[in-house]
Amino acid sequence: MQLQVKNEKMLLAGQWIDAERTFDVVNPENNQIIARVPKATKGDMLFAIEKANEAYHSGKSWSTHERIRVLNRVADYIEKDKERFAETIALEGSKTINEARAEVKRAIQTIQISAEEARRITGETINFDQNEGSENRVGYSYRFPVGVVGAITPFNDPLNLVAHKVGPAIAAGNAIIVKPASVTPLSALLLAEAFVESGLPAGLLSVLTGSGRELGEPLVSHPLVQMISFTGGLNAGKRIADQAGIKKINMELGSNSPVIVLDDADLHDAVKACVSGAFSAVGQNCIGVQRVYIQKGIYEQFLQAFVERTEELRVGEKLNELTDVGPLIDVKEAKRIDDWVNEAVDSGAVIQAGGTRDGAFYAPTVLTDVPATAKIAYEEVFGPVVLLYPVEDIFEAVQKSNAVNYGLQAGIFTSNINYAHFAIQHLHVGGVMVNDSSDYRIDAMPFGGVKGSGLGREGVRTAIEAMTEEKVVCFRLQQRIF
């Protein structure tokens, strides 16, 4: 099917504008150009920052009820046109149409939760009289917005991960500038459209499309940008931390997520959840299952069932509702994953399923006997590959789960509450899912990791806390008032 190439505009300080330079957005399934978008310059970014700062200061009295109204209108706007949003996600990215629809639903919830949490940005009273000599003092603390937030977002959830930055920022009363992934900018522009049409004051949101190398440094290092919210890779996160200077930084930097399956688990349930967790969104998921540690007594049975279920997955066209797994975001990523798998095989790993590439498509792949020295064992694969290992007991499983420089989320399947609590206490991660794979999240929960998986937490309420500062107010009461 030949699609008409759309010429998109970007949102710069409340205005939809073109640019002298453009770049193509392609469907990774067939390399078909689906849109041309502006390629913003460093000057555009500096202008957006200045205008965001002006808009923030001119709108400091922007009331909570007005923020709530705009956010609710945005959620309604997306709901009324949700199929267009879903088709955009599927066309520009890797998700199947069913996965894209699920992302739109989550984005609506993220914006709705942002509206709800705007009501709950509260402080607390402070008992100053707990200190001797302060009996005549009373006071409280309250939260105020940081000002201008810079957001850099990835390709794998091109709508909802943008919503996770814009929704809390607006709920808290900030201005925000978004630099979306260059391969998937259209979903971010659609979200910007929803905010503009819902009455967001001009200047509080800019979405600039273009090169991260050209736009990233001025956004991250500018003194008027008071906070950076970044989702992406560890190496990029390190560069941002070096460039940012002294300002607030929230980072979600990926993972190599483990799941533990003990011999008292519901085997069928564990297999079903782990296959879904490993291969949904073609494995391009920061909390996707990458390593599974199975107790030896059930290892062979688990392996057989896991391979059988994996081979039932249908790889194909993203807009086909029967498709389970689509393409990687581009051929380069598919080739990288193929290289990693081949390196593991050369080191002794065994391919139990998959292991083949066709353009940007990579078959859901199951590996066993992968040595710890193979790159795919300790780095984030970010693709449809999962590693299965037998272990003696929970102690070995936890020790091996912790043996990488990532710690975002983990899962454990067991019917023993003591084993579950041991894992909760000793897994060095930001979240432990009991009788679920690592690939479980709701948009209201705190979300983030430790070690190389990032700094701080997302999730609407915790993001709002990060996007605000706390101020203490103390009154010294006069002994006489007349």
From TrEMBL:
SUPFAM superfamilies: ALDH-like
GO molecular function: lactaldehyde dehydrogenase (NAD+) activity
Keywords for this protein: Oxidoreductase
InterPro entries referenced in this protein's UniProt entry, alphabetically: Ald_DH/histidinol_DH, Ald_DH_C, Ald_DH_N, Aldehyde_DH_dom, ALDH-related_metabolic_enz
Record flagged with keyword Transport: no
Residues in Aldehyde dehydrogenase domain copies: 16-473
Recorded family membership: Belongs to the aldehyde dehydrogenase family.
Protein name, as recorded: Aldehyde dehydrogenase family protein
Source organism per UniProt: Aquibacillus salsiterrae
Upper classification of the organism: Bacteria, Bacillati, Bacillota, Bacilli, Bacillales
